[in-house]
Amino acid sequence: MAVSGANKLLYATYRPEAAEIPIILDVLPDPEFQKRLIQRESAFWKAVTDEDWSVFDHSVSDSLPDGFADLAAEWLDFQSMVETVKSEEKRLREALLSFLPEGEGMIKGAGLEVSRKYAKGSVDYSRLLQEIGFDTSTLDTYRKADTLRETIRKS
Taxonomically, which superkingdom (predicted)? Predict the structure, then answer.
């Protein structure tokens, strides 16, 4: 898209074992991504022409477990697709919600229920406890067990 200047492209994927019809998504230009991509491609091409691979010294660690780099690249590609899908979902969501009247409302049909309603706000318990004079240092006696959080994100 950066080279052609296209305003959009269609990304299609078809896996007959997973679905009967292909998934087709509109992909819109992402100027910031295109800028980073061109910079990286330029650095790569300079390394090729100069035969200087030092630019890649920190991109892959020799200490990575076998198969990690391949899975990481696959995960990063998938995350790009997820971002595109989220963007398309947001566009469709906003378009569907635009059919609702101002304020609360609901439309049921075509396999969907689209609604808008108000809900009470959440309670700021920390502030409430402080205002009624509760000694917040005793909160740990009421705390549930710790949980393990596992995270994967772009670095």
Answer: Bacteria
